[in-house]
Amino acid sequence: MKTGRAALLAETLRRTSLGAALGLALLGAPAPARADVVIGVAVPRSGAYVAGGEQVLRGIEAAARDANAKGGLDGQTIVLDVQDDACDSNTAVAVANHYVRANVRLVVGHVCSNASIAASEVYAQNGVLMITAASVASRLTDRGFPTVFRVCGRDDDQARLSAAVLAERFRDRKIALIQDLTPAARNLAAATKDNLNRIGINEALSVAFQPSDADDAALADRLKAAGIEVVYYGGDAAEMGRLVRISAERGFKPQWFGTSAIATPDFARIAGSASNGVLMTFYLDPSRQPAAANVVKAFKAEGVDPTGSTIYGYAALQALVAAGNFAHTDDPRRLAATLHAERFDLVLGTVGFDSKGDVTAQGYVLYVWKDGAFTPAGK
Fold first, then answer.
1. Ranges of the chain with pLDDT below 70
2. φ, ψ for residue 263 (rounded to 5)?
3. What Pfam families does the database record attribute to this sequence (predicted)?
């Protein structure tokens, strides 16, 4: 067993591409490590959501390196067992069962909500602690599993903000709510519609479509013909980027409104200049906050822009380490109780977790894309 864990550590170190600067970001006096503690990391490394998975993984690896430089988790060296769930529910369940069989009791993951919801059933049944950096579905924590946590926001909070912005800024405009049949887009569109309708505003058009270049062109033509002025879409960065670009090429340039799913440079790269002015709801950007300054500086020293979910990946593992060091344990149930009961100084600021496992950090903010980057949109 020791040889296997050593091999895992060697592989983790081999995969790491950020240099020694990250290890020095939060460097303190290292305590001697007693043993290894293996932490599962479940992210998409294949499929449509690779970009988000890479952001989260980059943050987790940096947090593990910084923690190990200070003595690890309660004196144990952190070793990462990284698995690809492809943001697929069935694959996520297989990954969860892998961790159970391997006696991995702490997991940072998954990224996509459908994967997290499916895998969390396995974790809850087997006493594994799971903390996600990016899964926003309210159902994930509403079920009340005591060992399931998240450091990101909830989709119902995001939908409320989206509806409020649409009502305040575009009340007299023709609004379309579109979704691409994926669970995340469908849920966000439905929740935004419910909130918007409760405010007293009805959308001019609601459309579900199957993404492809041909369907994107047909959808753009349909929206244009209907006189749509504002388009809300909860889909992923690649698809929205393509849709925005194709629409602009066909002379359709509405006010586009996306969600946290497009908080990656891939969106602007795919959409090109048509990305300018696109609105987006996303969590409070911790890379701009004082609590994350040292970590952000270390990333940038290596030429890495820690945007999107990178810092949230860092925060997820950092929370596990903080709770383990506070309670002097790596037992998942005791760690879970500590996360629920205490507050911790993380890159997100000083935060805790409520009875459902949701983080108490500030929620969603409105951003606008310009010249390949997003910044707060203001009032």
1. 1-34, 379
2. -80, 60
3. Peripla_BP_6 (PF13458)
2-153+287-362 is a CATH 3.30.565.10 domain: no
How far apart, in whole angstroms, are the C-alpha atoms of residue 318 and residue 347?
A: 8
- In this structure, the number of other CB atoms found within 10 A of the CB of residue 159 comes to 27
Residue 179 near residue 186, CB atoms below 8 Å: yes
| pLDDT score for 14 | 35
pLDDT tens-digit profile of 287-319?
888 899 999 999 999 998 888 889 999 999 999
Instruction: State which H helix or E strand residue 65 sits in.
Output: helix 50-69
Domain 156-285+365-376 listed as CATH 3.40.50.2300? yes
The ranges assigned to domains in the chain are 2-153+287-362, 156-285+365-376
Element at 194 (helix H, strand E)? helix 183-199
Place of tokens 């989206």: 162
Structure tokens that stand for 197 in this block:
């309708």
Note the pLDDT of residue 379: 57
The two three-digit tokens of residue 181, written as one number: 């049949």
